Amino acid sequence: MISLVLGGNKSGKSDYALKLFYGGNGKKCFIATGKAFDMDFRKQILKHREERRTGIHVLESGTDLHQVLVKAREDFDQILVDSLDFWLFSCLYSGCVEEKRGEVIRLVSKWDKGPDIIFVSCEVGLGPIAPTREVRQFVRELGGLNQEVAALADEVYLVAAGLPLTLKK
């Protein structure tokens, strides 16, 4: 089962994804994609760590989400990837977005047998048009990635104000 949980910043999407994740059975793996580049984000990551249940195996992917997913697929029954937007940002920043995005989409397209996986991502299509080229590129890339993953997913949810809306089931 492939699930995608979308929402805006601080919408409650990660909390909802964790609820789905904890509701499943078996050995669990949380894949963290965000890297702290400032103190504010370090605090946010620490808060997320403190809110997670103990006993959950955590892997950090950086730009190598494909490789981490391949390993996690062999060792775990449930995987939560939080979040695609931070991963994509790292790939754009590193100049490897096309290669890395293609690897992940090819892997997910062949995910029919394997552990349940939940992806979390920001829905960026609800905001105003960005004033800079770099932000517009990120919005285009993330919107396209979200659409690709949603097309492959068995379930897609949109979370707003902490409330999930089922888009695909």
Topology, element by element:
Elements: E1 2-7, H1 13-23, E2 28-32, H2 39-51, E3 57-60, H3 65-75, E4 78-82, H4 84-94, H5 97-109, E5 116-122, H6 133-152, E6 155-160, E7 163-168
Parallel strand pairs: 1-5, 1-6, 2-3, 2-4, 4-5
Antiparallel strand pairs: 6-7
What does this structure look like?
This protein has 6 helices and 7 strands, in the order βαβαβαβααβαββ. By secondary structure, it is of the alpha/beta class. A 7-stranded mixed β-sheet has the order 3-2-4-5-1-6-7, sandwiched between helices. Helix 5 packs parallel to helix 6.
Order of helices and strands: EHEHEHEHHEHEE
Q: What overall form do the CA principal axes indicate?
A: globular
Strand percentage: 15-25%
Number of helices: 6
Biggest β-sheet: strands ordered side by side in the sheet: 3-2-4-5-1-6-7
Summarize the main sheet.
7 strands, mixed
Total count of strands: 7
Quaternary organisation: single chain
- How many whole angstroms does the radius of gyration measure? 15 Å
Q: Low-confidence parts, pLDDT < 50 over ≥5 residues? A: none
Structural class: alpha/beta
Tell me the distance between the termini: 11 Å
Helix content: 40-55%
- What is the average per-residue confidence, as pLDDT, rounded to a whole number? 91
